[in-house]
């Protein structure tokens, strides 16, 4: 079976050595800001028994996706709800970013693929958040058309970032303490 086009694209991304310098600088900043200790343990989900980041990403992903759906299918009556969903996603995005950077800084030194993919994952999600800020501001100014378009663009960036986050976990095993069984493996029941 040949690899999917997305996995081929991810493999190309993982080979871009030019990302190592910015990734190393980012890791230094994160490790300085979040040294080992109670705050790091809180953000890493040590108390939960697994990473906290995937859990907190559900709020911005769900809110922004729901806003985009309401924008295009909900009619005039859904405008206020869509606007509140954009704001909810923005308020939750900070927690998703901080927990993601914390996890990435723990794993990036172990693998060039994780280092590079994680940096691009963060950039895509940062782009999504920036587009959603623009969407919210446009909505507040009464420019609904621009707000809707920026929301769609933000949702697209979020989808690409989310796919890459899944690739980090499920393909590269980043943040996973024990790998999933190989495809086709059967349990010894």
Measured by DSSP, the beta-strand proportion falls in: under 5%
What's the count of strands? 0
Low-confidence stretches: 178-189
Summed over residues and divided by their number, the pLDDT gives a mean of: 90
Give a topology summary.
Blueprint: H1 5-14, H2 20-33, H3 38-44, H4 53-73, H5 79-107, H6 112-140, H7 144-171
Q: Your description of this structure?
A:
By secondary structure, the chain is mostly helical. Helices cover 73% and strands 0% of the residues. The chain has helices at 5-14, 20-33, 38-44, 53-73, 79-107, 112-140, 144-171. The longest helix is centred in the middle third of the chain and has 29 residues, at 79-107. The radius of gyration is 18 Å and the shape is globular. Mean pLDDT is 90; it is low at 178-189.
Task: Using brief descriptors, characterize the structure shown.
single chain, 189 residues, mainly alpha, 7 helices, 0% strand, globular
Question: What's this entry about, in short?
Answer:
With 189 residues, the chain is mainly α. It has helices at residues 5-14, 20-33, 38-44, 53-73, 79-107, 112-140, 144-171.
